[in-house]
Design a protein that fits this description.
alpha+beta; five-stranded antiparallel β-sheet; 29% strand
């Protein structure tokens, strides 16, 4: 049985709108499950890095654990990893803060 060209053209006319709606639903799901939580995590990390100050115990992404001895103005901090051993670390490589110091009254 051979389908006429008119029948073949009219069958696909309603699928364009439903495909577009499905695409929008998939994008919305991806936004709420992947993109939004990642943006929130980046914002929290940025706030944590900006709040670093002298005396904080930190862990770097390389696994170094130490105490911040100096916060430099050009995105660097100085971390003491052993008594008398100080290393310069880029602020954004700090993974977490183990303990915060109390602000000077």
């Amino acid at each position: 049985m051979i389908a006429s060209p008119a029948y073949a053209q009219s069958a696909g006319s309603g699928l364009g709108l439903s495909n577009f709606a499905l695409l929008l639903v998939i994008f919305a799901i991806m936004y709420f499950l992947l993109i939004r939580p990642q943006q929130k995590k980046v914002k929290q990390h940025k706030a944590m890095v900006e709040a670093l100050r002298k005396g904080d115990s930190v862990v770097t992404q390389g696994g170094l654990i130490g105490k911040v001895t100096k916060v430099k103005s050009d995105n660097e901090i100085e971390v003491e990893i052993a008594s008398g051993v100080k290393v310069r670390v880029v602020q954004s490589t700090v993974q977490s803060v183990l303990s915060k110091t109390e602000p000077a009254g």
